[in-house]
Amino acid sequence: MKKYILIALITTLVSCKKETETNLDQPKHDETSVTVSGEELFSGKGTCTACHLPDQKVIGPSITEIAKIYKEKNASIVSFLKEEAEPIVDPSQYEVMKANFAITKQMSDEELKALEEYMLSFAK
Ligand code: HEC
User: For a disulfide at 85, which of 62, 65, 79, 118, Cβ 3.0-4.6 Å?
Assistant: First the structure.
């Protein structure tokens, strides 16, 4: 008897897992989808935190430095992340940043806008 309960439980768990997996595959342009915050994108899917910390230069310039320059120049981070605008912060290191366009170009405009807003919020 115990065995059957166990099998039933496993089956339920497996089918639940499948459901979440298919949900993740749904198109991200779905109007009804919940908007992800820029912060989540930055540290999650974007993996931007690997090279950009709030106040300290690591591999890339700090978020504060980028935000300051983009605000001063009234430039668009969204355009930069779509590879439609030239680098203005540290062009000598542009090649390192370029690899990330593979990720950012997969993002919707809404997600890129959220990333931009998150980064600009660091300008003092
Ligand atoms: C492998 C390390 C690395 C990762 C990961 C990374 N960056 Fe960068 N990023 C850099 C470097 C190096 C620069 C400096 C070169 C430059 O200015 O283009 C830079 C510059 C930038 C700039 C300034 C561009 C300019 O005008 O000069 C922005 C905006 C930016 N990154 C956003 C992001 C976002 C958003 C993510 C996540 C999707 C990200 N970065 C992930 C390394 C990285």
Answer: 79
